[in-house]
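Slide 14.
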Amino acid sequence: MLTRIFLLIAIVAGLTAGVLNFVKVKENITVLRTDLKTTQDNLASTKTDLNNTKSTLAKTESDLKRTRTQLADAVAERDKAVKAEALAQQRAQKLTDEMTDVRKKLDDAQAELAAYKVAGMTPLEVANANKQIKELQNTLNALRAENKILGTTIRNLKSELAIYRDPDSRPSLPATLHGKVVVYDPKWEFVLLDVGEDQGVLVNGELLVNRDGKLIAKVIVRSIQKDRCIANIVSGWKYGELIEGDSVIPANPAS
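Slide 15: predicted structure.
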């Protein structure tokens, strides 16, 4: 009888241990499943982050490539402007030398004509001398006109080069410059003004648009012609709608 009791106790203890082990194993399995799911979620999140990083990296490489191309283009444009300015300076010097030579010839011709008159020259000789003087005068006037054009070209090239050296720099415009708005496009926010190269306007020069003494906007010149120019409204400097006839003056007048 005692043996059966011990045997029963042993069986109960074994069953109890088995149940406890089963519960423990079940808990471990639950924890492992939870850890596995967490790991899988973390892996999925890591893959998503990796894909996003790859996408960002690809975009960054594309932006870098585009920036390098733009930089190369800007350097090429700058070098082209530098070369153009040097050639214009050489031509301007050549014109100056030619004008000096023509002035000397003109002075010599006038002195010779005066001498002929004193000496009693013939009408034909006077006519030939006058013709020569007129031709020299025309040549001098043509050289002066070309020199004026070259001067404007050089000023524009210097203005363009200044932007490459300092993007925020703006050329000074003549203090006496006054113009008017001829056309205004509100969609693209550009204006056509009735002043240009002949009035001393330079590319990237800034002008203030006003009406009855009230500031309406500030514009920056983008392209110029002989007596016309096109300008865009500077961001943050529009205080009202522009209309034809609005006045413009230099934002940075030369002293």
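Speaker note: Helices lie at 2-119, 123-165.
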